Amino acid sequence: MLQYLIHLPVASIIFVITLAMSFYGFSHPEFLYRYMLHPYGLNRDKKKAYLLVSSGFIHRDWMHLLFNMITFYYFAFGLERLLVSQSGSLGHLYFALIYLGSLILSSLPTVKQQKDNPGYYSLGASGAICAVLFSYILFDPKMMLGLFMIIPIPAYLFAFLFLFYCIWAAKNSRDGINHDAHFFGALSGLILTIVFYPWVIQHCISQFF
Questions:
Q1: Which one of 50, 96, 141, 187 counts the least CB within 10 Å of its CB?
Q2: How far out from the chain centre does Cα 128 lie?
Q3: How many alpha carbons fall within 13 Å on the CB side of residue 146?
Q4: Cβ–Cβ contacts within 10 Å for residue 82, how many?
Q5: What is the mean pLDDT of the chain?
């Protein structure tokens, strides 16, 4: 872990803080409610803007945390390493901006949609995790991913299927999952990566020819 902290400090710190806050929240429900995203409360008290970030470091239960942290482990550390290889120490900053920026941007549509719903709460790092995954896909669109963590599928095809599913699920699903956050997190990851590395579009396309 020390090597990760030395060479990949941003991903390491985010990983540790997310585990610590989530573990604490599992046995302290009042802590979860205090730091969940609550659009109704945020809309009426702008001082609660910190909820846009804090809600991404806590999780509902063990399975919610496990799924997000497995994806984080496989792609966040790799993305920070990749960005550092491209930009030197500036890559650490770019990774932080992609992760935290997408965490905020992925929640803004939900804040707007649910601003008059006092009973709506949301939590979890899924928006930022999707951003990391889609950012990584831009650099390696033909890598193989596991659909449902089982079926091998090229990353670019997974990306299209995932976005279409998010659009469909946001309108039709009643599973309690914030699919809008997944969708806008993925888009934020793509956009911020392109802002920092405009050449990545040509690089991504060139992988198919």
A1: 50
A2: 1
A3: 6
A4: 17
A5: 91
Structure tokens at 203: 């690089």
Tokens (6 digits) for 7:
């060479």
At 32, which helix (H) or strand (E)? helix 29-35
Sign for the CA dihedral angle at 181, 67, 177, 148 comes to: positive
The pLDDT of residue 75: 93
Supply 132's token pair.
């990391």
Sequential DSSP letters for 7-32: HSHHHHHHHHHHHHHHHHHHH-HHHH
pLDDT of residue 153: 84
Whole-model pTM: value is: 0.92
Q: Which two tokens stand for residue 119?
A: 């009973």
From the CB of residue 123, how many other CB atoms can be counted at a distance below 10 Å?
A: 23
Lowest mean pLDDT among 13-22, 38-47, 110-119, 149-158: 149-158
Quote the CA–CA distance of 208 and 142 in Å, as a whole number: 8
